[in-house]
Design brief:
Number of strands: 13
CATH class of the largest domain: Alpha Beta
CATH architecture of the largest domain: Alpha-Beta Barrel
Oligomer: single chain
Strand content: 15-25%
CATH topology of the largest domain: TIM Barrel
Helix content: 25-40%
Strand order of the largest sheet: 5-6-7-8-9-10-11
């Protein structure tokens, strides 16, 4: 086997605001495996300040991994390297596929079925966010996810009021993502105000590692709470079950690149379902290579809720792919070839 990697800096079409700051680029590394005339590829995707993988040691870790794969020796310890684990799991599966990209054969891969997804509204001023909402609805999205926590809260409520004035909850489902922006002392009151607009759910209303406060919030909240960043850095089944049983969230948000790949994500799903907790999958700013793998895996789970898989169109230099978004759904147009990696 030959094993190597390539770095690819994805450039945003426009600066994209989050509660952690404004993003203009995001780095990925493609892990490539060649064996028996076949090639497999997996994406190692990092989000600065969020991914556990240490960026400064990324290439030395990938070097060690590639050398171990080529020499068929023991792999380096990848505990605490979820993005690298994701890349390796995907690359190995890709190597075994018929074309390098059909990782989980299904009607989705054939191009005959699609996955419903939410339309994502990035932070900005009122006019910019309002414009995004209108554009998403005009494109057929009936589930809108709005990032909040950066603007004045009353301005964000005004945005929600405007949307609800035009569309009822039966027409447009609204998700909000606070990325931990609320203080525990103010969070419940803010959730009460948000609930006036028939919000489907809120992701991570307060920052991570405040389990008691988050559990209390989940118990008292007038709207469902989804855990997102709270799952990062938790790797054993016992730790996962403890978090779910202690906090008792309404939903889990699963990002395989931040959780260590598909197998650890499936463990989260199994434990959540045993506790009566629902879930959905979200991409984490991967290129189309990673998004393709995550989408195919997601479809294989038999999902019905809208998923968070609409980030592929954010970049100016994404890898050309057959992935397409139409009428609020992600699908594959197999008449379009993959571009070079």
């Amino acid at each position: 086997m030959r094993a190597y990697y390539k770095k690819h800096r994805l450039l945003f079409k426009r600066p994209s605001g989050t509660s952690r700051g404004v993003l203009t680029y995001k780095d990925s590394w493609f892990l490539l495996l060649e064996e028996g005339g076949e090639t497999g590829v997996g994406e190692c995707s990092l989000i600065a300040g969020l991914s556990p993988d240490p960026p400064a040691q990324m290439e030395s870790t990938l070097d060690s991994l590639c050398k171990a794969l080529e020499s068929q020796s023991a792999l380096p310890d990848l505990n605490g390297w979820p993005a690298v684990q994701m890349a390796l799991e995907t690359a190995l599966r890709s190597l075994q596929s018929k074309d390098g990209f059909s990782l989980f054969p299904s009607d989705f891969v054939k191009g005959t079925k699609q996955i419903p997804i939410n339309g994502l509204v990035w932070m900005g001023d009122f006019e910019f966010m309002s414009k995004q909402i209108k554009e998403l609805i005009s494109r057929g999205f009936d589930c809108i996810k709005i990032k909040i926590g950066a603007l004045d809260f009353n301005t964000e409520l005004k945005l929600l009021a405007q949307l609800r004035k035009e569309f009822s909850a039966s027409e447009i489902s609204i998700r909000v993502d606070a990325n931990g922006a609320f203080k525990p002392t103010e969070a419940l009151e803010k959730l009460k105000q948000l609930s006036a607009y028939e919000i489907h759910s809120i992701e991570q209303p307060i920052a991570v590692n405040q389990r008691s406060a988050m559990a209390d919030l989940c118990l008292k909240s007038p709207l469902p709470i989804a855990l997102d960043e709270e799952l990062i850095g938790i790797y054993t089944g016992d730790e996962k079950l403890k978090l779910i049983s202690e906090i008792k969230p309404h939903y889990l948000i699963l990002k395989p690149s931040l959780l260590g790949g598909f197998a650890p994500s499936e463990e989260w799903i199994q434990l959540a379902e045993k506790e009566g907790v629902d879930w959905w999958v979200t991409s984490a700013l991967e290129s189309n290579v990673g998004l393709n793998a995550i989408a195919q895996w997601t479809y294989s789970l038999g999902v019905t809720l809208p998923q968070g898989l609409g980030t592929g169109s954010l970049f100016t230099n994404n890898i050309p792919s057959p992935l397409r978004i139409e009428k609020g759904c992600l699908g594959i147009d197999n008449s379009i070839p993959w571009g070079l990696i």
